[in-house]
Amino acid sequence: MSSFYSGAASGVNGKHVVVITDQPFTSASAVAGAISGETAGDIIAYEYYDRMTRVANLAYVTSDNHAQVFAT
Questions:
Q1: How many whole angstroms separate alpha carbon 30 and alpha carbon 22?
Q2: Which residues pair with 59 in a beta bridge?
Q3: pLDDT tens-place string over residues 11-55
Q4: 8 A C-beta contact, residue 59 and residue 69
């Protein structure tokens, strides 16, 4: 992988591996919509919004503004 980013969703710009640390999201596609420059196959780690469990997820970008969770 040629690039890695960890930080706020607004700071992402085409990194292949992204760790979103600034806010919880309700879905993988919500994360994909909050970042820019992602392409199919890029990996996103993010926190799922659940007040009780605060679960972290891994997702891969499937298309513009869409992603699919593959691990929790």
A1: 14
A2: 44, 69
A3: 777 777 888 777 778 888 888 888 878 888 888 888 776 667 677
A4: yes
Domain boundaries, the chain: 4-71
Residue 63, pLDDT > 60, answer: yes
Pairwise CA distance, residues 13 & 55, whole Å: 25
Look at residue 34 and give its three-state secondary structure: helix
41: left (phi over 0), alpha (psi -120 to 50) or beta: left
* Burial of residue 66, with CB atoms counted within 10 A of its CB: 0-12 exposed, 13-18 middle, 19 or more buried: middle
Q: Enter the pTM of the model.
A: 0.71
DSSP, res 33 = H
